[in-house]
Amino acid sequence: METTVVELPTVESLTDAIRGVVYERKTLRAVGAGREELERNRAELVRLQQELVNALIRRHLPADAAA
Q: What is the CB neighbour count within 10 angstroms for residue 66?
């Protein structure tokens, strides 16, 4: 029987990823990027923020409350 191990992103890795997307957004705005590029960036930022919330919940939720 095979066991599948799922590695979830860490709070730290998600924070770094968000930092990169925010930097990208600032750059896009500075160079006058179009609406579609800014929307793609915004959607990615929201997705990463949602993942960060989930990672923080996993980290701080007591194990018995998760069951």
A: 8
User: What average pLDDT is seen over the chain?
Assistant: 93
CA angle 39, 12, 3 (to 5 degrees): 100
Q: How far apart are CA 4 and CA 1, in angstroms?
A: 10
Burial class of 19 by CB neighbour count within 10 A (0 to 12, 13 to 18, 19+)? exposed
The reported pTM is 0.83
Phi, psi of 23 (to 5 degrees): -60, -45
Q: What does the alpha-carbon distance between residue 52 and residue 18 come to, in Å, rounded to a whole number?
A: 9
